[in-house]
Write a structure and sequence with these properties.
This protein is mainly alpha-helical. Among the domains are: 43 residues; 98 residues, no CATH class; 72 residues, Serine Threonine Protein Phosphatase 5, Tetratricopeptide repeat (Alpha Horseshoe). It is built from 25 helices and no strands. The protein is elongated. The chain starts with a helix and ends with a helix.
Length: 482
């Protein structure tokens, strides 16, 4: 920086303060050909004045001048945020992209992603966009940006799973980054999203910790989010009742105690206690009579379960499909009724009707709706059907539930994967085994390798040598992890 450059820069800044941005803008622009670091500061000054004047052309030229800076570390993120707030998303994205390329700033990466997302590009992949920011901030050790980006990333995946029937939630990656995110760095709304990711953890400690945080939010009604936290806790219970630690169940009970006394509250506690007893009997591998007694208790505690049981008994002997009793009900109740009907049709030898019902239940799946136990049972029963389409529909429901929801089927998942492979759906079997491995089920890794090997042999028999070699390489990696 020469003496005259410094003098000119100070004069321009004083003009901006004393006279205003119109006169100062011309002074800053005269310094755009100066040496560094004067040129960088002059570009920022010109951008600042152009934005104060709200002159689109001048803003565009200042952004272009910032993009042309070489090796400068001066930051324009603050101005990018202001451009974003004013609706100039493309200019904001360009500013941040230029800064990101020069400095690697995690903040610039985050604001750029916000600007790109706000541009409403129809072909935008928000999951990939935020995934890049998450990885970038994590690699740089920027905990604040990483936490904010993780909340956006998980939210993007939940939105995709809600809208796209072909979406596949990357459960392991979501959990890994949710566990790493520092909750103290984010807003209350973002904390809820991150806690949802932690509820998918294979670690009972992580899930219990997340449940305790949600119970605290529900109790204190933090930022008016008490209802949302309570709903998330209850959904977590419904999503994986057979996998929960007793502490998680206690957190649900503690949160529900804040509800007003009445019949609804009593019924909720009876349902939770009954389902917890059934899960405990199932986990202890008690005799069939004990498990049946626990299941009957669940039916007595839930009007929906009781109605479903009666409906199943009626459907088993009916010559025609029963009329829907839940036309105006929510998705969860409709999945329960549909899957119960499918189970009855399978037991009654009406495979074609069961296929339509299983497909209808699959179409109702969403990350907002827990997969009821009846749906897992119906899909599992379909895997043993002689009818090929029934097996396809059952495997399809299981595959979609693992891909698009945050629910888990009853354990052991390794056994379910074996039944899927036997039913002819190796890809669905591997998806289940990936979850079994993530949840640290014994023998899951070996079983996954065995299924990979069977897929490889089937591919080789069909002439797909490339697929066969790829599957064998994966099998070897599972048998002999590095």
């Amino acid at each position: 920086m020469t003496f005259f450059d410094e003098l000119g820069l100070r004069a321009a800044e004083q003009l901006e303060t004393s006279v205003g941005p119109f006169i100062a803008l011309a002074s800053f622009k005269r310094l755009l050909a100066a040496e560094q670091p004067t040129r960088g500061r002059a570009v920022i000054g010109a951008l600042r004045c152009a934005m104060a004047l709200d002159e689109e052309g001048e803003i565009e030229r200042a952004v272009a001048a910032f993009e042309a800076l070489d090796g400068d570390t001066i930051s324009a993120v603050t101005y990018a945020v202001r451009l974003l707030d004013s609706g100039r998303t493309q200019l904001a994205a360009r500013l941040c992209a230029a800064e990101l390329s020069r400095t690697g700033s995690s903040t610039a990466a985050y604001v750029r992603a916000r600007a790109v997302e706000a541009g409403l590009d129809a072909g935008l992949d928000s999951c990939a966009l935020w995934g890049q920011v998450v990885e970038h901030a994590g690699a740089r050790g920027d905990h604040r940006v990483h936490a904010h980006a993780v909340a956006r990333w998980i939210g993007a995946w939940i939105t995709r799973a809600r809208r796209d029937a072909g979406a596949v939630l990357p459960r392991a990656a979501l959990v890994a980054h949710a566990e790493r995110a520092q909750l103290a760095e984010v807003l209350a709304e973002e904390r809820l999203v991150i806690l949802r990711g932690r509820l998918l953890s294979a670690s009972a400690f992580q899930r219990a910790s997340a449940s305790s945080s949600l119970e605290e939010i529900a109790r204190r009604d933090t930022a008016g989010l008490g209802g949302a936290a309570l709903a998330m806790l209850c959904r977590h219970f419904d999503e994986m009742p057979f996998h929960l630690h007793s502490i998680e169940v206690d957190r649900v009970r503690a949160a529900l105690k804040r509800l007003p006394d009445g019949a609804d509250k009593t019924r909720l506690f009876e349902g939770i206690d009954a389902m917890a007893a059934l899960a405990s009997a199932y986990a202890a591998r008690e005799d069939d009579a004990s498990i049946e007694a626990a299941a009957s208790r669940v039916a007595r505690a839930s009007p929906l379960a009781a109605a479903a049981s009666a409906r199943r008994a009626a459907a088993a002997t009916a010559s025609e499909p029963l009329p829907s009793l839940l036309a105006g009900a929510g998705a969860y109740d409709r999945i329960v009724a549909t899957s119960i009907d499918a189970l009855a049709c399978l037991e009654g030898g009406r495979a074609a009707a069961a296929v339509g019902l299983l497909d209808a239940a699959t179409a109702l799946l969403s990350p907002d709706v827990p997969v009821p136990t009846s749906a897992w049972l119906a899909a599992s029963a379909a895997l043993d059907a002689r009818d090929v389409e029934a097996r396809r529909a059952g495997a399809g429901l299981i595959r979609a539930a693992l891909a698009r929801t945050t629910s888990l089927p009853p354990p052991p998942l390794t056994a379910l994967a074996g039944r899927l492979a036997k039913a002819g759906d190796g890809d669905a079997a591997h998806a289940v085994l990936e979850e079994a491995t993530r949840l640290r089920e014994p023998a899951a890794r070996v079983a996954s390798a065995e299924i990979r090997r069977e897929i490889a042999y089937a591919a080789l028999a069909s002439g797909d040598r490339g697929r066969a070699l790829e599957e064998l390489r994966r099998a070897k990696g599972l048998f002999c992890p590095s």
